[in-house]
Amino acid sequence: MRLNLSSKDIASLLNISPKSVEINRYRLRKKIAVDTKVNLQELIAEI
Question: Is the distance from CB of 20 to CB of 11 less than 8 angstroms?
């Protein structure tokens, strides 16, 4: 995500489905208690 890649691009790099990438993003949001309105790329850039 830090490289500003789309879910489709990440999926092709990792040889997984784009849906798997979306599920992982969802789980990350849930784990760090971040609302869906927050852009994960911006949040990671702040860290």
Answer: yes
